[in-house]
Amino acid sequence: MTAARGLEGIVATTSSISSIIDDTLTYVGYDIDDLTENATFEEVIYLLWHLELPNKAQLQELKQQLADNMELPQEVIESFKTYPIDKVHPMAALRTAVSALGLYDDEADLMDKEANYRKAIRLQAKMPAIVATFARVRKGLEPVAPRKDLGFAENFLYMLKGEMPDQIEIEAMDKALVLHADHELNASTFTARVCVATLSDVYSGVTAAIGALKGPLHGGANEQVMKMLTEIGTADKAEEYVLEKLNNKEKIMGFGHRVYRQGDPRAKHLREMSKRLTEITGEPEWYDISVKVEEAFTSQKPLPPNVDFYSASVYHSLGIDHDLFTPIFAVSRVSGWLAHILEQYENNRLIRPRAEYTGPGKRNYVPVDER
Ligand SMILES: CC(=O)SCCNC(=O)CCNC(=O)[C@H](O)C(C)(C)COP(=O)(O)OP(=O)(O)OC[C@H]1O[C@@H](n2cnc3c(N)ncnc32)[C@H](O)[C@@H]1OP(=O)(O)O
Ligand SMILES: O=C([O-])CC(=O)C(=O)O
What we know:
- The protein is an all-alpha fold.
- It has helices at 32-38, 41-50, 56-68, 74-80, 90-103, 113-137, 152-161, 167-180, 187-196, 202-213, 221-232, 238-247, 267-280, 285-300, 307-317, 325-346; strands at residues 18-21, 24-27, 30-31.
- Helix content is 56%, strand content 3%.
- The chain has a three-stranded antiparallel sheet with strand order 1-2-3.
- The longest helix is centred in the middle third of the chain and has 25 residues, at 113-137.
- It starts with 17 loop residues before the first strand and ends in a 25-residue tail after the last helix.
- It holds the Pfam family Citrate_synt.
């Protein structure tokens, strides 16, 4: 047995949800470029869960179901106040809150198809409320209840900021949610599938996936990108910063990808959004620094930016706290996790690969006082 380190190149399942072929990303056959230009996040959720775009009535029904299920159990809101709030990363809070939500869902362990779909709706709907409520509670602000008349992206920004977002902000958030929704068998989605393939429940699968997304080699990279841009400070310092990091054999966050070779097709949309939004906010330096980092990095390594690179300056321009960037990724990606969880249940087999053993050969036990 020879190990494929990091399971590189291993095809571990079949899936009808999304594909990456020749650096082109599609959700159920629709090119990400097409969806980013034309679809709303709610349409994408429906597409990922039903493998078809919704008609008007189906879309309206889903929007209603999401709006009706956004509110959090009071116990979950109260529990935020018991966290060591100044030390807790919002991804840890999100992971804990999703796990806690399962405690208050009477259907948490009910394993039929309809119940699992109902749980998917409830979880998708509550994710933005968790992120927004935690973000407010930790600042000593009152939580803002979701409004049933608002769309998903709009409601999220409204709950986060406590005021109505403008149209440009809503569109930017909606596009960002579309772009992050699903991505074949990425690490967090694989984690979710491994978890539920034991026939564990939906809440366990999503909790496990949040844990995997949190790491800086995966979703956690977007926060690290913003940290880097802030450290660099001005565009003229970008090249020196990048070269020094590379000389020290450090990674530059937001570049490279396990699957894409020529480039991540999502990055160009976020780059454009970053340019536009940083101009609107009067802080073009965040885009300028990002471009200089890209130029300096790609002059040294043939690794283009991934989805996390320009999303950092996009979220910053939306006035979002930097440690909420990865939770926002989760608010979108939970749609993909849930699609994969439902697909896994439909055609389940325990996921259990092998390990190539590299430890010592056979030896005999030695009693403790002879060691
Ligand atoms: C949503 C997402 O998850 S997108 C990815 C987000 N993560 C990041 O942006 C973190 C930075 N990037 C990386 O760490 C990697 O490119 C990954 C984790 C995304 C992909 O990793 P892998 O496919 O395992 O590639 P691996 O890390 O082995 O890199 C291959 C080579 O490229 C180098 N490399 C890859 N990415 C980078 C980077 N961002 N900066 C510097 N060097 C890099 C590695 O050092 C390695 O060099 P070597 O062969 O000389 O040792
Ligand atoms: O697919 C991956 O390995 C990481 C990624 O880009 C994503 O999850 O969006």
